[in-house]
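Support request, please re-run this one:
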Amino acid sequence: MIREGTVHTGRLLITFLAVALLAACQTISGTTDLPQRSDLFQLSNEAQLAYESGEDAQAEQLYMALLRKTPNDPEIWFRLGNLYARAHRPDAAADAYQRVLSINGNEARAWYNLGIVRLRQGWAAMIQAHDKTNADNPLFLESEKLIRHLEKTPGLPIPANESPPNESPPKK
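Re-run finished. Output below.
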């Protein structure tokens, strides 16, 4: 025969186990991650607003904070690359685009922007070579020809305050 106290204790034990199981399920389902996701979304919006309003230093700080939380997010690296390209920091821009490509080698926007950044770097190097060469040196005329040719390349000359070469996916 089962005693009354044993039944009550059994019911309490079952109730406790059910509550513990529900709490575990809630934690596993990720509801505890919701504030973090919300924070990331807000941080991303703030970074984009800072970028769009020309507050490059603030945008860079916010993008770097995002990368500390999600270091393998190719979109954040892409936006950071665009920020660096706009700020005339080609090495940093190229590094950011390379990071995108190491995460997703099929990202056409990053390939395109990396190509533009590298072309601009080559063009700038050619100008330096021309400026450092005497007029009687064969490199003077060769570099001058290349510079004139590159100047005709769409998207290559860098007007003041230019946006990065490709901020949205190319239309196919």
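The chain is about 70% helix and 0% strand. The CA atoms of residues 74 and 100 lie 5 Å apart.
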